[in-house]
Amino acid sequence: MNWQQQWQYLIEQLYFDFITFFEPKWENVVDFSRPPIFMNLPKSVVEHHANAAQQSLVIGVRQKNDTPSILLFVLETKGYDNQEFAQKVFNDFVATISEFHHKIPVNLLTLFLANSLPKDAERYEYRVGSTHLQLHFNHYIVREQYLEDLLDMVNPFAFVIAVCRLRLEHENAPKLMLENKLLLIKRLMQRFLKKRIQLQTVLVLLYFIKHALDLPKDWEAEFIALAKIEVQLSNAVTEQYKTLLINAIG
Question: 57 with 108: CB under 8 angstroms?
């Protein structure tokens, strides 16, 4: 799976947690009994995303009053080097609105996954003569989050952001990456044993941890061995659950 596909998988599997993490006020608006629908990007968006520093997901959301809405979810990965970020987001937003003939409301959320921010990260502005247009971006900046705060949050989707934070911090430090991958496994196990998180959610997060926090081959083998020991030593976990968890780890 590429990065965009991983996020689509996360949103599909953790839909309620995803929505309520980024948009808490939507908890009483969205009909969570109906899964999200991932739509094809407008052609103009696909063309400029071929090798882009940002990727977009167009997510169909059904509300409790049975009306549809769209969430344009933009993943930004290059930071300061992405000098055309605001222009591209504006183009994506306009293209998405046009795709649905201005009949379905479109919400916009940008997630910054790099160590720096692109130019004009919070808004797009166009000014010619007396014409002045502004589009403000609802956004979330991973680098500004503290790991312990994320791991203490009730919403399981905070673990996803914690993984992204560690990816930023230790991308070129395999020993620290290994130690922190093990920390995430331990914290997940603690939550599971305290019945604060569902088994299926743990399995989804384990999959994301494994693939999002890349380690060199030898370091990854060491991580898998240590993580499996961590699971095996847990007396409170049944053998059936241990097998599922170990398989998810690798």
Answer: no
